[in-house]
Automatic annotation (TrEMBL):
InterPro entries: NA-bd_OB-fold, NA-bd_OB_tRNA. Residues 47-82 form the OB domain. GO terms for molecular function: nucleic acid binding. This is OB domain-containing protein. Signal peptide: none annotated.
Length: 87
């Protein structure tokens, strides 16, 4: 089972300001959890979120992470691959 503290290190370690998208380098926009929650669904921009992992639920096919940075009372849910590496 994943421990939230370890996942936070892995998530922050894997975050970068740039991501590859179909061979092109694309900049990621840094925003708070509050700003990310205010965006409409289906938004197609890359974002970088930094915060605390509040909970982790491991399922067979996916991993659910709830992230909060203190800017909102709501958590941002991240759906990740279950083989997310920890440090």
């Amino acid at each position: 089972m994943y421990r939230p503290g370890k996942l936070l290190v892995a998530l922050l370690g894997n975050c970068s300001r740039h991501h590859r998208n179909k061979g092109h380098l694309v900049s990621a926009v840094r925003m708070s959890v509050r700003e990310a929650l205010a965006k409409t669904e289906g938004s197609s921009i890359n974002i970088t979120i930094q915060g605390w992992v509040r909970s982790v639920r491991s399922q067979k096919e996916v991993l659910f992470l709830h992230i909060n940075d203190g800017t909102s009372t709501e958590n941002l849910q991240i759906v990740a691959e279950p083989n997310l590496k920890t440090r």
